[in-house]
């Protein structure tokens, strides 16, 4: 059991399935009191009933006050997990870009705005952002997703550097492929880039809890991403040539 989460009040957004459901199950198994949020009310209630949690369906951007009440007045851990895997190019359309920005970035910002004052007052709090390796690297065929996941990572990084000396802990989870409905929705590009090394949602939860125990900001369920990130920083042009080859391979086979 991880002492830091025993008895904690935890909110997990996008927890009706996939990574969110795995996180909710793991927090409950570790003795936390959990609020399960999802836009799909039936899925939220199903997971909550399974683990003895509270279901709170609705938009992840606006649930903090209600979740705090459901947990008896205090949120100790907030998992900003809800996200959209918007594909497409620069021509994806204003609506697609706006939705990706709103869900993948601004929902995190709004949650932090509602959470941070109370956390600063008491000197503790934990913000967990499910980002993606795309936030450190990029994703072929998915400009809105890649750009907004970079934003989600940057915001988590900013939160950590700004408030860590005041008791707020931040974790950014950056997996590659995970066997979820979102992976299935990526189609041929996901089959090429992500599926060969895809892991289970429970593996992501394991990586997060190991990171909590070790007090680490960056959580890499695929450890090899660290090497890719270093290569990108060390020689951006070489890395872009490599990624462009993947782009060309995808174009040839889709």
From TrEMBL:
Q: What is this protein called?
A: SDR family oxidoreductase
Family label = Belongs to the short-chain dehydrogenases/reductases (SDR) family.
Keyword 4Fe-4S found = no
Native source species: Streptomyces mexicanus
Keywords carried by this UniProt record: Oxidoreductase
Q: Which Gene3D superfamilies match?
A: NAD(P)-binding Rossmann-like Domain
PROSITE patterns from the UniProt entry: ADH_SHORT
One MF term in the entry's GO annotations? oxidoreductase activity
List the SUPFAM superfamilies: NAD(P)-binding Rossmann-fold domains (SSF51735)
Lineage at the top is: Bacteria, Bacillati, Actinomycetota, Actinomycetes, Kitasatosporales
Q: Which InterPro entries match?
A: NAD(P)-bd_dom_sf, Sc_DH/Rdtase_CS, SDR_fam
């Amino acid at each position: 059991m991880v002492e830091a989460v025993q008895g904690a009040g935890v909110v997990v957004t996008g927890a009706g399935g996939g990574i969110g459901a795995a996180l909710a199950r793991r927090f409950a198994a570790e003795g936390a009191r959990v609020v399960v949020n999802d836009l799909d009310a039936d899925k939220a209630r199903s997971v909550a009933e399974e683990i003895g949690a509270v279901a709170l369906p609705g938009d992840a951007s606006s649930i903090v006050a209600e979740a705090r009440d459901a947990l008896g007045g205090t949120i100790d851990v907030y998992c900003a997990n809800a996200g959209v895997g918007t594909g497409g190019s620069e021509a994806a359309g204003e609506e697609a870009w706006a939705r990706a920005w709103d869900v993948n970035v601004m929902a995190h910002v709004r949650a932090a705005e509602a959470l941070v004052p109370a956390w600063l007052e008491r000197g503790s709090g934990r913000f967990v952002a499910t980002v993606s390796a795309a936030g450190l690297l990029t994703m072929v065929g998915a400009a809105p997703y890649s750009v907004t996941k970079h934003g989600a990572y940057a915001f988590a990084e900013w939160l950590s550097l700004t408030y860590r000396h005041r008791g707020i802990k931040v974790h950014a989870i950056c997996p590659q492929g995970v066997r979820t409905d979102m992976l299935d929705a990526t189609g041929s590009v996901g089959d090429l880039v992500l599926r060969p090394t895809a892991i289970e949602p429970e593996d992501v939860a394991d990586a997060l809890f190991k990171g909590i125990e070790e007090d680490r900001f960056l959580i890499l369920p695929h450890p090899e991403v660290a090497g890719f990130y270093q290569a990108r920083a060390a020689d951006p042009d070489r890395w872009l040539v490599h990624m462009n080859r993947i782009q060309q391979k995808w174009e040839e086979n889709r």
